[in-house]
Design goal:
Blueprint: E1 2-5, E2 8-12, E3 16-22, H1 28-43, E4 50-54, E5 59-71, H2 74-77, E6 87-101, E7 104-115, H3 124-129, H4 138-154, H5 159-167, H6 169-195
Antiparallel strand pairs: 1-2, 2-3, 3-7, 4-5, 5-6, 6-7
Helix pairs in contact: 1-6
Length: 202
């Protein structure tokens, strides 16, 4: 699957997003150094984030965590409960791999482990399995909902509120997917802006 973002074609799989970028007139050494500048600017020294820094094969791998937001389905069932947040945050571990050539480079974001909010700790694996970057499969959400429904029943929640919460699962995962893609897009565009600054070329 491919999606156009900021006129850039991105290749999307269930766990990865890859962008192929042009850097006309720049050597791979220049591009490598400019991406290094971007890492230093955004990650400080970069030592904690860098998993691989190979200036012979022109490859860099970063590890990081991004926080994504989505609407909390439980807030619909309990709209007046101030202890139930309207939005929940999900921590997404990831890597970003840079492969560099003369005049071009690619960036691949790979989604790793996901740390769900406390609301769904009891259904961690089903929650994670339902998060896909290419599309959201109803069957994955159905599996997740079955586990959630079992837990809500065990907590003696009534059918009406359970149904409200379960109905919010697909919108929640779609919003989460959208937010992750937006974050990835922003990171990659930020790299592209740095590389394309001709005054920064070394």
């Amino acid at each position: 699957m491919s999606i156009p973002i900021y006129s850039q074609e991105y290749i999307v799989t269930p766990q990865t997003i890859t962008g192929n970028f042009r850097a006309e007139g720049k050597t791979r050494d220049q591009i490598f150094n400019l991406i290094t500048d971007w890492i230093i600017e955004n990650y400080g020294s970069g030592r904690d984030a860098v998993r691989l820094y190979d200036n012979r094969n022109y490859q860099i791998i970063l590890g990081g965590i991004n926080k994504s937001l989505c609407k909390n389905p439980a807030s619909v069932a309990y709209p007046d409960n101030i202890f139930i947040p309207y939005y929940i945050s999900v921590l997404c571990m990831h890597t970003m791999e840079f492969r560099i050539k003369d005049g071009s480079y690619s960036i691949t974001y790979t989604l790793g482990d996901v740390n769900p909010p406390g609301l769904v700790k009891v259904t961690d694996r089903r929650f994670v399995n339902a998060i896909r970057l290419d599309t959201i499969f109803p069957t994955d959400v159905e599996t997740y909902n079955k586990a959630v429904n079992t837990n809500l029943k065990a907590g003696l929640m009534g059918k009406y509120r359970r149904e409200l919460i379960l109905a919010g699962s697909i919108p929640m995962f779609k919003e989460l997917r959208s937010d992750i893609i937006h974050d990835v897009k922003s990171l990659m565009v930020s790299v592209s802006n740095t590389v394309n600054k001709s005054s920064s070329a070394r």
